[in-house]
Sequence to fold (283 residues):
Amino acid sequence: MKNFFVYLSAFLILIILALLIWIKKCNNEFQIVKLQPLLVKNYPNQKDEIKEIFNDFLKPEFLKSEPEETKNELYDFFLSNKNKDIDKWHNYFRAYYEHFKKFKDSAVNILEIGVERGGSLKMWKSFFGKDSKIFGIDIDPQCAKHSGKDITVIIGDQTDIKLLKNVNSKYGPFDIIIDDGGHIASLQIISFITLFPLLKENGIYVCEDTHTSYWEGYKDITNEYTFMNFSKYLVDLTNQVHFSDCKNIGVSFFSANCEYMHFYDSMVFFKKKKRKTPAHERR
Fold:
């Protein structure tokens, strides 16, 4: 009996430790849970109903491992590629196609940060067509060998602000910028703050693999300043024109020039377009 209680105690301790780890990893979910008592306070007559909707909203589910249902030219290129030189999550291709299809078969200028084996540069060239020009930046000198017809690889660090500006001056402005580089917070943030203002009007900037914002080895600034948290702050800035303290001092460049942000699993898309003061009326 004594051994039973020892084992039971050890088991319970393991459960508690696992729960604490889970709570830490699911902190954002628990921020939502904190809303429940606050809403109950405001709507005490709906206490049970509020509890029920929160339980339904946050109940755990396991995702199914099933083939991506996407059907488009980019995904077809990826699936038929036999060279093992393109490293992408399958769910990316639906978002790519939706945001990039308007540039197809045009004299589009593309910059991808992160070249690695060079396969994605060839994929972009195939998709966007003969008039497109594809540029890549990578810190590895070996990647220079992937340069070819209408594909240019520049060797350098994506945190080198002078390099990024020089690349834009020499080869830009770009219609599309894809950050598939180091995936570390400071690299993603410096590249975005430098290059988004230089993006062509109506251009698209996408940061890939943002799931690294939740991985310890990629948080080189602080836990607060991951790329995903940085992007959440930018969401607020898209509404900056409505901030009471901005009515007399204006808004930030980002607020004035970002038409939208789209969030997907591990990707954030930004469209650059000069905005106008929102108009409101009753008719």
Summary: The beta strands are 109-113, 133-138, 151-155, 176-179, 204-208, 258-264, 267-272.
